[in-house]
Amino acid sequence: MNFDKTILVTGGAGFIGSHVIRLLVNKYPNYKIVNLDKLTYAGNLENLTDVENADNYSFVKACITDADQMDKVFDQYKPDGVIHLAAESHVDRSISDPMSFIKTNIVGTVNLLNAARKSWDGNFDGKLFYHVSTDEVYGTLGETGLFTEETPYDPRSPYSSSKASSDHLVRAYFHTYGLPVVISNCSNNYGPNQFPEKLIPLFVNNIKNNKPLPVYGDGKYTRDWLWVMDHATAIDVIYHKGKLGDTYNIGGENEWTNMDLIHLMIEITDKQLGREPGTSKSLITYVKDRAGHDRRYAIDSAKLMRELGWKPTLQTQEGMEKTVAWYLENEKWMENVTSGNYQKYYEQQYTNRV
Ligand code: NAD
Ligand code: TYD
Fold it and tell me: Of the listed 80, 135, 149, 230, which one is catalytic?
């Protein structure tokens, strides 16, 4: 079959990547979508069972830290575009093991940039390297203000520092080698298929199992939450219409303190479990704070809305109801991802804190 173009999506078996793959495979039958993923603890092909047999989809198991492998993948698939999501993504893990973040997020990104540069060999017509990044590169906000595309980088965790480094390197390849690139920096995502080390799936699962809900510090940290499908549609729009060399901030205009969000989660989860709403408040347990915990993130997405016409679609109440329902209904998925190595991580992460 002949396709109009081939897009290599890295990290497509992860949380956001799987939603991006599903959107692209279904929306663009004329594109070949190649999912490159190492399948770390966070990568799960069960996230993609509904599209795995599509004619325009292929999966390749490879590690972005292996430069030779990246060259081979480019030789074999000759992608016109890359949407790069593969990363180590959890702040707490970056605190206990920074080196794996340096290897995957920095070295891995440079390996992909080099492979693209070699493969495209100066013929950049119709080519694009799209780097997916985070708002955490901007550091932390006080009580007011928003991160704009002009906010100076000030990352504070090994995770955000490694993502900031990769953003700088992507821009360096644009300026130095003329590689066609675009970058987006997004706020916290929520929705189905997120690994339950992150706040929302962890807490829904703990409420269900009557386990403690470990609140870091005073719980007054603020995040700007975006429905994961809204991130996927933003990536689609930016891939097709974004200006080369530009950065786009993506956010939900949806700030919540952790405690307010936790109360909403408890209310919705209790209701869906048939418990009196609020019963699970007794599970709230304040634990030692995360080291270097960023106080507040909030994104100004005006540029993306104004220039490319994107906007978030889902309000939190509805998004959280759908999210909670998904985790409660997909028991098998939850069981599969919380068995084995994850159990060990959970014990290490929380034994001394709760
Ligand atoms: P995730 O941890 O759920 O998924 C990461 C995926 O990358 C997994 O499938 C994993 O197997 C794969 N991967 C990891 N190391 C790899 C390697 N060495 N080689 C190949 N594949 C590898 O992460 P996510 O939450 O889906 O985040 C995806 C991207 O979006 C990341 O770049 C992250 O920085 C960024 N981001 C995430 C959020 C968020 O709220 N989750 C917000 C903004 C930006
Ligand atoms: P997280 O989902 O890890 O995203 P990020 O740190 O990238 O924003 O955490 C979201 C917020 O929830 C953050 O302020 C840390 C807090 N948190 C807890 O209070 N307890 C937990 O067990 C976890 C995982 C997070």
Answer: 135
Contact 260, 329 (CB under 8 A): no
Residue 53 lies in a domain: yes
Encode pLDDT of 259-286 as tens digits.
999 999 999 999 999 999 999 999 999 9
pLDDT of residue 172: 98
Share in percent of the chain as helix, strand, coil (round to 5): 45, 20, 35
Distance of alpha carbon 173 from the chain centroid = 23
Q: What is the mean pLDDT of residues 242-246?
A: 98
Q: Give tens-digit pLDDT for 217-227.
A: 999 999 999 99
Domain-embedded: residue 333:
no
Q: Is the CB of 231 under 6 A from ligand 2?
A: no
The one catalytic residue among 37, 88, 92, 136: 136
Asked whether residue 352 is domain-assigned, the answer is no
pLDDT at 237 over 90: yes
| Domain hosting residue 167, numbered range | 5-195+225-254+293-314
Task: Take residue 253 and report the two structure tokens written for it.
Answer: 């205009």
Nearest CA to ligand 1 atom 30: 85
Res. 187: pLDDT tops 70:
yes
Spatial distance between the Cα atoms of 191 and 158, rounded to a whole number of angstroms:
25
Per-residue pLDDT at 341 exceeds 80: no
- Domain assignment present for residue 48? The answer is yes
Provide the CATH number for the domain around residue 180. 3.40.50.720
C-alpha dist (Å) from residue 34 to 10, 202, 242: 8, 30, 21
294 CA closest ligand 2 atom index: 14
CA of 266 to the centre of ligand 1 (A): 27
Indicate whether 354 pLDDT > 90: no
Q: How many domains does the chain have?
A: 1
Q: Is 136 a catalytic residue?
A: yes
Q: Give this prediction's pTM.
A: 0.97
* Ligand 1 pocket residue status of 45, Cβ below 6 Å: no
